[in-house]
Design brief:
two-stranded antiparallel sheet; mainly alpha; 14 helices
Amino acid sequence: RGVNVWWIKFFLTAVYATMYIRDHQRPAFHEALGVDTDWYAHEVFTKTSKLSEQIFPITLDIDNPRWEAGLKRLQKANVDLADAKTQGRKVAQLGASIRAGLAFVIGACVLMDNPIIIACLVAVFSWWFFTGAILLAVRLCDRNSVGFRAKVTAAVSPFYLFGFCGLWYSSATNDVQSVYLAFFSALSIWGWIEFAFLTGIITGPNTTDCPRVLMPFERFIRAWGTLAYHEILLVISLLLTLKLCWGAENTFGMWTFIVLYAARVFAKLNLFFGVPRINLEFVPKALDHLKSHFKIAALNWFFPLSVTLLTFALACWIERIYALSDASDIIGFTLLATMTAMALVEHWVMVLPVPDARLWRWMLPDNKNRQDICRKDYHGL
């Protein structure tokens, strides 16, 4: 009952999609058996569905033409992804990955037909894709001069402006489309700010390495100097977001930005106070001096506080999901809950030995300076 039904549907959907892809990766095997791969896959879907009905009173619409079309798009994207990997074409890998992700999300939406699961998939895919896209763009820009990076940052600045326009437009109504528009508008604002920071265009006045021996307050001032302009822009953007959305009909874009802002502040403070594990692989050359401001240490006093606050926020969003009945509100709070959960994951990977970089490493150009830094006695907690 309840949410367990949708977890079962998601599990079956994921199993079916994975099986379809794997079967089509072995065409010679099925050809030798004289079996059509598409027919075989559908037979497995049918028999598995009948067997699963004996345990779960759930039936997926596996005969839906949209589901079958989505599987074919997923398979085509998987083939293109394999070809791009073989040929070393990173942009083609990114494009094929996007197509594969969208094909799976759309197919899952067809079979599951549940706003909570759909919103979860949208949020997770957005978190993964936009992070990877920004890292890829930054990696490509990192090879060029400051002037080139500044021009690229200015060229994509409409994302920042359109984000505020989207927040303003969506704040007046609270239907499903407006909730998604507000969510992506907040991501658009946040994404441009992060891109401007990672390219080294909007950072801070201090671009020097941090001396090894400093008093804590002086170290904090120097660390602030590396981020000052970036932090000021974030605060200005937060205030503009509050001005546009506070008291409006639709505030989900505002809360999305607040979650992103709070999670980023928590992460920066944890890096300053010290965590057992820091991934330096994606730090661009323009921000190479930031590495000297990170601190490797045992679990600091602020980490439990930040994780507790994020967990409390996650619990509040989940409570709202179950307490409300309006579809747009459920979708909005599901988006917030998923983004908060992703923020929690990002915090825990600073402590636990999780290879998080693999989520994006495969679609980026090779980085010969790939490295993590961690305590010599590092063993997770």
